[in-house]
Write a structure and sequence with these properties.
Order of helices and strands: HHHHHHHHHH
CATH topology of the largest domain: Rna Polymerase Sigma Factor, Chain: A
Helix content: over 70%
CATH architecture of the largest domain: Orthogonal Bundle
Strand content: under 5%
Radius of gyration: 19 Å
Number of strands: 0
CATH class of the largest domain: Mainly Alpha
Number of helices: 10
Structural class: mainly alpha
Number of domains: 2
Shape: elongated
């Protein structure tokens, strides 16, 4: 094994878990919070930006999210052992939805770089529904996704851009894993149906 590969293997082997970093932070190691933020900043920021669709507002909510995280840890009220990321994203999601409800803005679907998050989406299963979806123009797909029920749209976004497992999605959405899987399945079925109807309309 080359020296570079040995170094990479060693880093991965001894990389601290979320819970180890949380424990060290609560014991007074401030640097561990920086490590946690750096580990998940993209996922958390994106989860916020998907709802508010404004980079500056998303940055404010991102900061508020980790202020709440820090406050909870410092107060010794952290009870989400083994579920750090879902817990943080749940806080971020709730703050973003509070902003949405206050401003009554319609959530849109874009990435933190204002790019369509579904342009390069990779679905976890290979089936006819997903093959058809991948072939659609990204702008058309985005409009169709906006028409999905909110619970289905949320699971789809968290899974394929937030990169959360269905277990983590279940934690964030406060539902069972089977429910999260079912919402994803229905989202794909509904997208296929809408794509077919759109194609039939254009051909007609």
């Amino acid at each position: 094994m080359s020296p570079s590969l040995k170094k990479e293997f060693s880093m991965k082997r001894y990389q601290k878990t979320d819970e180890e970093l949380v424990a060290l932070y609560m014991a007074g190691n401030e640097a561990c919070m920086d490590m946690l933020i750096n580990r998940y900043k993209t996922k958390v920021f994106t989860a916020i930006h998907l709802v508010v669709n404004d980079r500056y507002i998303a940055e404010d909510i991102f900061q508020e999210t980790f202020l709440r995280v820090i406050h909870t840890l410092q107060k010794g009220k952290y009870e989400e052992t083994g579920k750090f990321l879902p817990w943080v994203i749940r806080i971020a999601r709730n703050l973003a939805m509070d902003y949405y409800r206050c401003t009554k803005r319609m959530p849109t679907i874009s990435s933190s770089e204002d790019e369509d998050i579904f342009a390069n989406m990779r679905f976890s299963e290979n089936n006819s529904e997903e093959d058809a979806i991948r072939k659609q123009r990204k702008d058309g797909l985005r409009e169709l996704i906006k028409m999905l029920p909110a619970d289905q749209k949320e699971v789809l976004i968290l899974r394929h851009y937030g990169d959360l497992s269905f277990k983590e999605i279940a934690e964030v959405c406060n539902c069972s894993i089977n429910t999260a899987l079912g919402r994803m399945r229905y989202a794909l079925i509904n997208l296929k149906k809408m794509i077919g109807e759109k194609a039939a309309y254009l051909q007609g």
